[in-house]
Amino acid sequence: MAFIHIALSEGSTADDVRQVEEKVGPRSAIEGLRVEAWGVDGDRLRHVTVWESEAHKDRYEAEQLLPVFQALGMASKVGANTEFITCQAEGLFIR
Asked: Between the CA of residue 8 and those of 36, 42, 43, what are the distances in Å?
């Protein structure tokens, strides 16, 4: 079953996301990632991902995302200023 992950980050910018994306690499190479969308609304970044499973999301965060945050010096900022909302998807449509 698909897994939905939403991150709401105060003070994060589009440039922050682009820096992370550059270090992580192509989205198509991230195992289990089905959908990703993000945007900035004022001073709040809204980042939505849909994964094949929660285990895929957890593995990506531990093995790829968190090390990139640490390398870029963003780990404490993101951790302190981000709210996470997650749930199993009851339905998923991709055109």
From this structure: 14, 12, 10
Q: Quick check: helix, strand or coil at residue 27? A: helix
* Cα–Cα dist 25/83, whole Å: 24
Q: What are the structure tokens assigned to 2, written together?
A: 């698909």
**Domain, as residue range, for 58:** 3-88
- Give how far the C-alpha of residue 57 lies from the chain's centroid of Cα atoms, to the nearest Å: 9
pLDDT in tens, 42-71: 999 999 999 999 999 999 999 999 999 999
Total of domains in the chain: 1
In a domain, 45, yes or no: yes
Q: What is the pTM of this model?
A: 0.93
